[in-house]
Specification:
This protein is of the alpha+beta class. The protein contains seven helices and four strands, in the order αββββαααααα.
Length: 167
Amino acid sequence: MDKESTIFKPSEELIAFANEFSGNYRKLSVGTYSSDDGQFRIDYLDKIRDNVTGSVINTPANIGHDSKVMQLGKNYLMDWNENSDFIFWLIIWLMAKVTNKKCTENDTYTDIFVLGYYVTTGRSLKNMALGFLDLSKNTKNMEHNIKRYKAIDNFIKEFQKNEQDAN
């Protein structure tokens, strides 16, 4: 597989929607937010709940694999030291998760797949990584998230080394 096909290429509409939401999530009310073309939707909820049982799910984000409707839990986004760079990455990550077969099967692949695009945005890699650490601390699947963070950290270090060598 060539390098070009291992990097997520979000649409301009998704990028604009992710920029708008991530830049304003702190002041937005709980509700439904859609992209201008109606292709993308975020249900910004007080807390994310299981569709069947109604019980609160311990996650800051969720996406319907069939509906492609993103859910973001305002309770999480306001409680941690997250930032707009991470929220932007998270929105892009959620869409990659439901639009690429390899992403549906592997979180770490999705992390790197989306980072391949993210590094082209000029957004802070440090802020993205700090947001990921905040997201994943004290979770049930801590070992899984540690492995994911190590892959993210290695990707960032390699990217920064390549950037430095190019200059």
